[in-house]
Write a structure and sequence with these properties.
The chain is 47% helix and 3% strand. The chain is mainly alpha-helical and 320 residues long. α2 packs antiparallel against α4 (103-116), α3 (57-70) crosses α5 and α11 (250-256) packs across α13. InterPro entries: Haem_peroxidase (IPR002016), Haem_peroxidase_sf (IPR010255), Peroxidase_pln (IPR000823), Peroxidases_AS (IPR019794), Peroxidases_heam-ligand_BS (IPR019793), Secretory_peroxidase (IPR033905).
Length: 320
């Protein structure tokens, strides 16, 4: 009996350990605000439903915002901070300046949450919930978001420039970057499936359609129509050529057909270690949905270091 009890305690500790993370020993729980702000999830869901109905692309934008926040010093809403005299923030870092958007949507949600629950809910938790709802509203899975994050009181443009993978990354580079965050190659491939929604600027995929050899000729010709070799950097194209506003598995089918928009996308299906997972996901939507939700949970558990100054911001753009 005693041995059984010890084993149970050890198993419980193993389950809970990943949820203890970051500054001030924060404990993440899906029920974190159940008593202090019971209307939180309804507020976020309603606001995201309005935003996505007005512009389906906004769902992809909020998902990207969450990813770009978590990969830089953890999920601490540092990406939302405007520059100050004391630090240069992340908004204008190379990977963010022309591609991350949706700050106004988060500000709108924050204002509604503050009206319901003053100085209670972090901006970081709002972004995590908004990202989950964005995926689900566009046809993707849902999951229980672990909550209890706090907001950083500073930001780092240099960290954003050095921590985020680029559209020209190799498979080895992607695996290393995600691995440095505790995310496996399988997590990375599942999370890359987020590119089933959203649009991208010509400047980010020009080299792919003009210089890569593992690209479908008709697909390259289609993209070249609006992305010339010079000029037109800001012209947008759907990342998923088939269903750009619906969260499904056609992204992986595109890779199998050499129709990945980014060089980094096609690296997942180019005779390498992730070819098998691409085929699994394209044939098994339920496996992809489950893996994506699990990987989002793992990414969402990335926390800032214990010595990072944090707070619950009243305005997501600035410290209190």
């Amino acid at each position: 009996m005693a041995a059984t009890a010890v084993r149970c305690l050890l198993m419980a500790a193993a389950v809970l350990a990943p949820l203890f993370a970051g500054s001030e020993g924060a404990f993440l729980s899906s029920k974190f605000y159940d008593r202090r702000c019971p209307s939180l999830q309804t507020i976020v869901r309603s606001a995201m439903a309005q935003a996505v109905a007005a512009e389906p692309r906004m769902g992809a934008s909020i998902l990207r915002l969450f990813f770009h926040d978590c990969f830089v010093n953890g999920c601490d809403a540092s990406i939302l901070l405007d520059d100050t005299a004391n630090f240069t923030g992340e908004k204008n870092a190379g990977p963010n300046a022309n591609s991350v958007r949706g700050y106004d949507v988060i500000d709108t949600i924050k204002a509604q949450v503050e009206a319901a629950c003053k100085a209670t809910v972090s901006c970081a938790d709002i972004v995590a919930l908004a990202a989950r709802d964005s995926v689900n509203l566009l046809g993707g899975p849902t999951w229980a978001v672990q909550l209890g994050r706090r907001d950083a009181r500073n930001a780092s443009q240099s960290a954003a420039n050095s921590n985020l993978p680029s559209a020209g990354s190799s498979l080895a580079g992607l695996i290393a970057t995600f691995g440095s965050k505790g995310l496996s190659a399988r997590d990375m491939t599942a999370l890359s499936g987020a590119h089933t929604i959203g649009q991208a600027r010509c400047a980010t995929f020009r080299d792919r359609i003009y210089n890569d050899t593992n690209v479908d000729a008709k697909f390259a010709a289609l993209r070249k129509q609006t992305c010339p070799q010079t000029g037109g950097d800001a012209t947008l194209a759907p990342i998923d050529v088939s269903t750009p506003t619906w969260f499904d598995t056609t992204y992986f089918e595109n890779l199998a057909n050499k129709q990945g928009l980014f060089h980094s996308d096609q690296e997942l299906y180019n005779g390498g270690s992730q070819d098998v997972m691409v085929r699994v996901y394209m044939r098994n939507p339920d496996i992809f949905a489950a893996d994506f939700a699990k990987a989002m949970g793992k990414m969402g558990s990335l926390m800032p270091s214990a010595d990072t100054p944090t707070e619950i911001r009243l305005d997501c753009k600035k410290i209190n």
